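Limitations
The structure tokens in this dataset are predictions for the assembled complex, not deposited experimental models. Users should treat interface geometry with appropriate caution, especially where small molecules or nucleic acid strands are included. An illustrative entry is reproduced here so readers can see what is and is not provided.
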Amino acid sequence: QVQLVESGGGVVQPGTSLRLSCAASGFTFSRYGMHWVRQAPGKGLEWLAVTSNDGENRFYAESVKGRVTISRDNSKRILYLQMNSLREDDTGVYYCVKESSGWYGYFDFWGPGTLVTVSS
Amino acid sequence: EMLLTQSPGTLSLSPGERATLSCRASQSVRNNHLAWYQQKPGQAPRLLIYDASTRATGIPDRFSGSGSGTDFTLSISSLEPEDFAMYYCQHYAFSPRTFGQGTKVEIK
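Predicted assembly:
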């Protein structure tokens, strides 16, 4: 069955960097677009970034554009989110999400999430 | 960017009652690429409905989606105790793939 397992979260200071990873299994990773979605404590869902199945196309939310980079390694079946210049409002649970197609699909599987806390 | 506005913010109902949740888009959603997700506290969201009206695998038939263009509805025909949760709509017609702000269905 499809499994997505995020890692790399933790407590970091403002201004620092962090790289999140998402290990995928149970499906042909290279066929599907992948996303990162975050949720601040007590708040709603915020879509952050997408990479197409082949990694050639990427798109970012305005709130994180220029500070984050989404990437993937199809040979290792891993999705990444590199986050720089972290701010306190980047605090939240970060979900790795598989979409149903290579680029414009609905979100059919979600990982359990990894918590990022940005605090001095 | 497409804005999605969900209403009401909170829906207070009793088990067995019908729930009707609304999602209004700031522009027409191409191909009805609109999905609904359910989220319970401490859990990741779960896909309920895609393409505005197609139930995802394993979703009970008390959940139904309808609508097209800019107005969409999620209905729960008879609320079960496990249905009290947050519900989000989302479009996937283009990027950014925005979410609505959510509707909380709580026990009255």
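Some entries come with short summary sentences. For this one: The first strand of chain A starts at residue 3 and ends at 7.
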